[in-house]
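Journal club prep, notes for RB
We'll compare a predicted complex against what the paper describes. Inputs for the adenosine-5'-triphosphate case:
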Amino acid sequence: MSYQAFVVKYGEIGLKGKNRHVFEDALVHNIVVSLRPVDGSFLVEKEQGRIYVEAQGDFDYQGALEALERVFGIVEICPAVLTEDKGFDELSKEILDYLDETYTDKHFTFKVLAKRARKNYPMNSMEINQELGGRILDRFPEMKVDVHHPEKEIHVEIREKISFYSEKFPGPGGMPVGTNGRAMLLLSGGIDSPVAGYMIAKRGVTIDATYFHAPPYTSERAKQKVVDLAKIVACYSGPIRLHVINFTDIQLAIYEKCPHDELTIIMRRIMMYLAEHFAKEDGDIGLVTGESIGQVASQTMQSLLVTNDAATLPVYRPLIGFDKQEIIDRSLKIGTYETSILPYEDCCTIFVAKHPVTKPHLDRIKKSEHNLDDVLPDLMQKAIESTETIVVEAE
Ligand code: ATP
Ligand code: MG
């Protein structure tokens, strides 16, 4: 069967009330954008709780499906046949032909699920279920009705448009990007932060990103790896404004002036200051990191308290309760894992102490940080001025 259309279903949560159209319009817009790189031309229209994606002529079916599978807010994608109202006889004939063509082996159970949203249609949903069910059994005696656990659900929806479908693919869920503000993601080349970016975008948040680069200790390839990760995340989140901040001089100053067991935690605090600078420039109202409680020394509750103290914006940590394996599973699913594990050096691993503090005290850390007072404002200013900003688009 070659489909010409998809019926797209979206979540009910967040749809209630007067903001419903904001959500739907954003979803339609994001679908249009996601289909741009796909071969073919598409008409995307919303109607009473559904979005119809209709290909105009030849198109890349698999490409379109995969694009839709990445659009947050979609809960289900059903390859469908859209048709005109030419009466019930004609409709049943089309559905029977569709079943014939789609399923060469018809030994399966089914149930007809009609939905008559347009009340001037001459038959109600129950009548359509019964009549169509009967005609299916007449033509394909191998098929059996099972109203409780059918192997195939044959949906018929009578709205302004008439559609029918029997196959479905899960969407990613969440809310359309752009409906829930902006946040600044601290994006490293690791496994966690790209997943954190995916998770926050899944809730409808537009993301910008900062990457702390330490040349010559970290290479161009390490930077390219972060750009590549941003490209993958952008397949879900839309374009990402990525700020590449040169962090070398700040790290050298910390190394020179602060106790070595406190390097990582002080570095984290300064990352917060700088990320927040760009967050405010970009209109971001939160910071996002890939931290999860207890994963490493800098992510104990005490360490997170000390890091948090450096930020005035809320810090969102979507992976906070995830085990490492759960994060890895998610990164495999979204496609960032293979890039994340490329073995390029990271600014944190180069300046890391053998035995970092695991229970830092805020007062002590702040006292150590004061060792930087005479150089830090100037170094931060230089880092800000030399930052390279790249707009990263989906691959
Ligand atoms: P990741 O896999 O995201 O690198 P991680 O397990 O390596 O995380 P850390 O290195 O402790 O953990 O970093 C914690 C968080 O701090 C990261 O998830 C990321 O949000 C941020 N971060 C760390 N290093 C950088 C960097 N070089 N640039 C930007 N953000 C960073
Ligand atoms: Mg890391």
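Talking point for the session: The chain has a mean pLDDT of 94.
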